[in-house]
Design brief:
heterodimer, B: 5 helices, about 5% strand
Chain lengths: ~170, ~120
């Protein structure tokens, strides 16, 4: 059973996901960064499992590009980005883009942190929402210009409001 | 939803006062005066928040009625909800697959040498 938890931090527009794996960190790292391994698990099977690893240049500045395909073969979805930081078995920082959707400046950074404890691997991903921080200062109310305000429970609030508005 | 629109909607939602206004509007249309009532701030300040919400397409205001009541527009909220749910689902499922794959590797080959 997965122990995944998603959190929306108070002080910045990010999403944090944490979960653990019953495997040593060295193995988790390899599964995450070796193209032969990545090709065997990446890409949700109900959405678009990976077909081909085009690029996986595991070094700062290196590119990654995974070609995924809809389960019914109707459409290809290409995920791509660059590695910003590579610390073996500890930390991987990359940009995350989707061709035709999130490209260039809109591709957003993702940080993956791995920690070994009691034979398990504790994984934490940290995603800064697309292009949001830079814009907040511009769009802000003028009352607290540039201040990063609460996005706490954003997901829950959005669902609640959308539900209330639908009735 | 384009990243630009997503970003504008998220920015509008980032403020607690604006979320409060949206929550109030979720129960029905209201005038600026009614919306301002729970807050210790001027009507002008509340109007500024409303402008941000209008700019993000989250609130509409009637052009003809004398008091120009504000209404909640749920479209952008559904889009953000859709984006967040998709993003969560993507990683939840992706990491479940990783877990299954790790288990498979450890059963067959503890070193995880690619087959």
């Amino acid at each position: 059973m997965s122990d995944i938890v998603f959190a929306y931090p108070k002080d910045e527009p990010s999403i944090i996901a944490t979960r653990s794996f019953d495997a040593p960190v060295a193995l988790v790292w390899r599964a995450f960064t070796d193209p032969v391994h990545v090709a065997r698990w990446w890409g949700p099977r109900s959405i678009a499992p990976v077909k081909r690893i085009d690029k996986l240049e595991l070094r700062p500045g290196g590119a990654w590009r995974y070609v995924c395909e809809r389960p019914d073969g109707s459409e290809q979805i290409v995920f791509f980005g660059r590695y910003l930081e590579v610390v073996p078995e500890r930390k991987l920082v990359n940009t995350f883009g989707v061709e035709g959707q999130f490209e260039g400046d809109a591709a957003f950074p993702e940080q993956h942190v791995f920690e070994a404890r009691d034979g398990r691997t504790y994984y934490r991903s940290y995603t800064l929402l697309p292009d949001f921080a830079a814009r907040e200062g511009i769009i802000a109310t003028g009352m607290e210009t540039g201040a990063r305000e609460s996005l706490e429970q954003l997901g829950e609030i959005v669902i609640e409001l959308a539900g209330a508005a639908a009735t | 939803m384009s990243p630009d629109r997503l970003s504008v909607t998220l920015s509008a939602l980032a403020d607690p006062t604006r979320r409060g206004i949206l929550a109030r509007l979720a129960t029905g249309a209201a005038t600026v005066t009614e919306l301002a009532a729970p807050y210790e701030m001027s009507l002008a300040a509340v109007s500024k928040h409303l402008k941000v919400l209008e700019g993000a397409g989250l609130v509409s205001r009637s052009r003809d009625a004398q008091y120009r009541p504000c209404r909640l527009e749920a479209g952008p909220l559904r889009e953000v909800d859709f984006w967040l749910q998709n993003y969560r689902r993507f990683w939840e499922e992706n990491l479940d697959q990783l877990e299954a794959y790790l288990a498979e590797l450890q059963r067959g080959d503890p070193e995880g040498t690619p087959h």
